[in-house]
Amino acid sequence: xxxxxxxxxxxxxxxxxxxxxxxxxxxxxxxxxxxxxxxxxxxxxxxxxxxxxxxxxxxxxxxxxxxxxxxxxxxxxxxxxxxxxxxxxxxxxxxxxxxxxxxxxxxxxxxxxxxxxxxxxxxxxxxxxxxxxxxxxxxxxxxxxxxxxxxxxxxxxxxxxxxxxxxxxxxxxxxxxxxxxxxxxxxxxxxxxxxxxxxxxxxxxxxxxxxxxxxxxxxxxxxxxxxxxxxxxxxxxxxxxxxxxxxxxxxxxxxxxxxxxxxxxxxxxxxxxxxxxxxxxxxxxxxxxxxxxxxxxxxxxxxxxxxxxxxxxxxxxxxxxxxxxxxxxxxxxxxxxxxxxxxxxxxxxxxxxxxxxxxxxxxxxxxxxxxxxxxxxxxxxxxxxxxxxxxxxxxxxxxxxxxxxxxxxxxxxxxxxxxxxxxxxxxxxxxxxxxxxxxxxxxxxxxxxxxxxxxxxxxxxxxxxxxxxxxxxxxxxxxxxxxxxxxxxxxxxxxxxxxxxxxxxxxxxxxxxxxxxxxxxxxxxxxxxxxxxxxxxxxxxxxxxxxxxxxxxxxxxxxxxxxxxxxxxxxxxxx
Length: 575
Fold this sequence. Notes:
The protein has 575 residues and is mostly beta strands.
């Protein structure tokens, strides 16, 4: 397929491969006429883009999506029918989010993987391959043929992935198991607002995750004309494939929007998690964890025992809540912590484990936890406590082992911290131990150390130098393609060499410099991320580094917001 040239500098996406089809039948008694209520019940589509193929006079088109977060478009080959449909839609006061247009009868005029629901009255020369092409994963087509309605569902492709936590999942390895995401060649959709509020103050984007074909993010939607206008923090849900707004929730007291130098507290992105049909979030800086219905945004439960939660991780039905310690300044104390140099947010938090379904407390840990240094998998919880890595039993919270002291910074800036992740049977840790104060900010002056420990007993497997990575953010450590990747990205003057090491031995198995000559800035103010095919750095825009081919694909026209960055998921790249 020939992809159109890039024409706008916003959200970018790579198209998703075609999928198999699941077929089911709707009872014959619904053969002649289906109401919107019947269609909704059978499709289980809750919001998004609806297309009515063969819309005729527009009566069913007008009814589609009524009372919900939908955009509806009717299509027909007959211009007179379309004119009648438009008149009917206007008469019902729905024109705008409902519209009608003429099409050629063969090509459904939408980009791949865009539409949530297609209702087909007259298929005509349109093939089912064409119908399935425009459907988003999980999308549904209702087709009437010979007086009978059938339903086809587009399954979720196996080669795309979700992104449920700030660092992909609870293990802390910011790598999507997605082989479709690649260098951007076209736009999928563009949402709003198109600009953050002010580059020199608090980032407008605090967190972004995606699950179940939906996108969730925390953003300041206050007007841009003056940063002195009070913030309007919102939790927003959109369809992940077409950007339709599904619902919004107001966020209470959040971090100070006049915070200097554009980033914000490094753990704000760790306050939002989405899994399946649930969203877990703190709806205020000092609030407990709320559990929301992902489709509607309605509150399902509030776990009061988690008030003051700074970080949330979820795995296999267990929530880890890092509570207290003011590692992210509380609403009542924020005025004392506006300076980036302020290290008073270093008091460590306490860890509580709960059942995700009920909020029942499973265990409480007596060990303090350093901000950002928390991860878990199906069996273990690992954390940094003071200067040692601890491993706990996930089900009981019992201590399994405590490591020897590891190198770490004495204190961390508000916008940064250590990096800790789990990969199979290895724990990887970078503690930014050579941090130093310089010009009112904290930055790493020399190389850090990357330490690998065995998950079995905490013994050190290997140590290696960790070059300066990121900028105004925690250090990058990424395990992709079975190798640990680290690169020198902080300075625009750095060559930008990337090194891939064996996970278990630390042996260098790949090493290469950029193969392009271009302008490099300092890395943007957020962590790098990756997929199983590419390392995604942002030394200027967004660089896709093919670590197998050792090739850089530079895209200086797009980058993410400070603090959060970009998100590779659903076969797309969100910025």
